[in-house]
Amino acid sequence: MSDEELKEMIGKAISIVSEVEERYRIPAFQMVLEKMMEGNAPRAHITSIPAISPTQLAGKSIEPDHGEEELAKSCRITIDQLHNVFDFVGDGVSFIVPLSGSENEKQETGCMCILAAHEVVYGREWIESTTLKETLRQAGVGSLTNLSTMLKSRTQTFRMKAVAEKKKTPYKLTDIGKRDAFERIRRLAIGGNESQTPGEEKPA
Asked: Across the strands, what pairs with 89?
C-alpha cells in the first residue's frame, strides 16, 4: 500500500466518523481504520464500509478508562455520574454540568475540578493557566482577568510554579485542595443531594 493510498484511507475513515457523537469518535475511527486495513482492503471494499452509530460502538466504548474509574471512586460517585459532570475528549476535559455561584466561586470550583480531573485521569499534576482559562471559558465562566490573583490567594488549595512566561504559569492542587475538589465534583454530580450514594437513582 502506497503512502497516498494510506492517506486516502485515513481521510475516508475520518469522513465516516465525522457525524458520530464526539465522545465515541476516536474509538469509531480506530474501528473503521482497522476494518479498512484488514488484508490491505482494496479501494472498492473501502467505499462500501457503512457509517458507525454510537449504538454500534457501545460494546467497545462503554468500558471506562481506568483513570476515570479512579476519579469516580475518589469522588464516591458512579462513572455515569462522573460523565454528567465532565466530557473526557482526547487528553482534556470539558464541563457538562453548569457551575453555580459568583464568578469567583465558579473560577475556584472550576479550577479545582479541572486540576483534579487532569491529575487522576491523565496523570498530569501541573496544568498551565491557559488550559484552565480555556476550559472555564468553554463552561461559560466570565471575567477571567483576575484568575491568577484568585489562584495565588488560595494557598491552602493551589500551588504554582514560577516560569518565565506568566501566561503559562502551571498550577496544581495541594492535598487539602485535592480532597476538596473530589467533594465538589461529587456535589456537582449528585446535584447537592448529599444523601445519595453511588448506584442510587436521583429522585424525580
From this structure: 92
Task: Report CA-CA distances (Å) from 55 to 28, 52, 62, 88, 181.
Answer: 11, 8, 10, 19, 33
Tell me, yes or no, if the pTM score tops 0.85. Answer: no
Provide the percentage of residues in the chain whose pLDDT is more than 90.
Answer: 51
pLDDT digit string, tens, across residues 110-137: 999 999 999 999 999 999 999 999 999 9
| Structural contact between residues 170 and 163, judged by C-beta atoms closer than 8 angstroms | yes
What is the SS3 string spanning 178-190? HHHHHHHHHHHHH
Segment (H or E) for 160: strand 158-160
Q: Can you give the residue range of the structural domain that contains 183?
A: 66-190
- Same-domain check for residues 128 and 183: yes
Together in a domain, 14 and 104: no
Total of domains in the chain: 2
Looking at the chain, list the stretches that DSSP marks H as alpha helix, in order from N- to C-terminal side: 3-16, 22-37, 43-46, 54-61, 66-75, 79-82, 103-122, 129-138, 147-153, 175-190
Residues 20-68 pLDDT 10s: 666 566 777 778 777 777 755 444 344 444 444 444 444 443 344 688 9
